[in-house]
């Protein structure tokens, strides 16, 4: 791009008012700068500098030409920025910590649809709870976190949040599966497969039970949603899951909303480290996530 170098030579001489000083700033020989300017003046058919005993001064034509150079330089900077963004959107790495409920279905689908437009993007996905998410964001090990009921923190910026109700999950042959919705009391009559108490969905259930006369006696507790889902194929069992994580296994399992009044809803939170500028590809993926999650609420 020799023409860009030439334009830079002219601009630098105009700023310095001296070929020698401009050459020092450009790290080239003064004779090379002078030769380029003479060639340009010959091409334009008019001088753009007055040669003075103590330096160089722009002519009227030179002022017009330098104004043109600086305008084009600003446009070029913008184009370069856009090119860099295009490179970032096509390539790059997205690191994410996500709740376990998103792992079986929702998140793989969102990653796949994002990769249709950005096939060179690489995703690093870690499954963890809100504590893992906070640690990863603060250690710069994750660009984004998408976790259930993330507690407010001063150094964490919430990018978006989406309401998530708890649902009852059971096999399609379960007696309750014929209903359009169920109550927690109805589920208590069957073997209960519940997440551990440190999992967000279980905490919603416990919050409801504090204000209810219903008592639940789980026969299985686990931190693995996959294991709990497997248990639903046996013994008319019932489990609970946030709606986005209620995988139906090709129709073998069904999810039924809870009709209990005042049952608490949780929040699925998309967050990042406050003050951190996300890589272009990570920002694009965050926007893609927002659209996908908003479509679930529509």
Automatic annotation (TrEMBL):
TM region positions: none
SUPFAM superfamilies: Periplasmic binding protein-like II, Winged helix' DNA-binding domain
InterPro entries: HTH-type_LysR_regulators, LysR_HTH_N, LysR_subst-bd, WH-like_DNA-bd_sf, WH_DNA-bd_sf
Record domain HTH lysR-type: where: 1-59
Signal peptide: none
GO cellular component: cytosol
Keyword tags: DNA-binding, Transcription, Transcription regulation
PROSITE patterns in UniProt: HTH_LYSR
PANTHER family (alphabetical): HTH-TYPE TRANSCRIPTIONAL REGULATOR YBHD (PTHR30419), NITROGEN ASSIMILATION TRANSCRIPTIONAL ACTIVATOR-RELATED (PTHR30419:SF8)
Protein family (similarity comment): Belongs to the LysR transcriptional regulatory family.
Record's protein name: LysR family transcriptional regulator
